[in-house]
Protein: Fe2OG dioxygenase domain-containing protein
Organism: Gossypium aridum
Amino acid sequence: MILTPRNVLTSTPMEPFATKVAILAQKLAEILAEKLGHKSSFFQESCLPSTCYLRLNRYPPCPIPSDIYGLMPHTDSDFLTILHQDQVGGLQLVKDGQWIAVKPNPEALVINIGDLFQAWSNDCYKSVKHRAVTHPTKERFSAAYFLCPSYETVIESCSMPSVYRKFSFREYRQKVQEDVQLHGYKVGLSRFLV
Ligand code: OGA
Ligand code: NI
């Protein structure tokens, strides 16, 4: 069978997954906003099916896993990410200054706060640094759904005084790209401190 972008999505379990996590991501964003006292249609208006995306990550086995990351340490540049990882495991996050493994659980999804939610929540929610390490003999897959706004969307803190100046998602992506090209890593939100 020839896999076109269309039937890759419809002939695999990706489509039902994408549909379900898209709804879940919106609900979570709403709940997290409500917890801060903001009943807001902001996420529904700015994060559209055309601006959010699903990424399938494949990590081939690596004989020297301690030297080679599957994915370098980073924070996600979106509002929030919903991740499903298979049973091989390899996702790690920083907690109290230490890298800890996120144990695979077939019954659970991993929810990551992204940079935009950190900015919108005025640092109430923190985008957690994470990475993926490789396995010496096993291939690993994960699927990540990114709740992203349109490039025109302006991210402004929901409370005052604001830690970050307001910025558009386009501006944020451009800054990240610029920093990666210039320094080899993403500087992130600290570029937008007031
Ligand atoms: C990502 C990510 C982790 C993983 O795609 O941004 O952090 O375990 N993935 O694949
Ligand atoms: Ni990530």
About this structure: Residues 55, 57, 71, 76, 83, 85, 90-91, 130, 132, 142, 144 surround N-oxalylglycine (ligand 1) (CB under 6 Å).
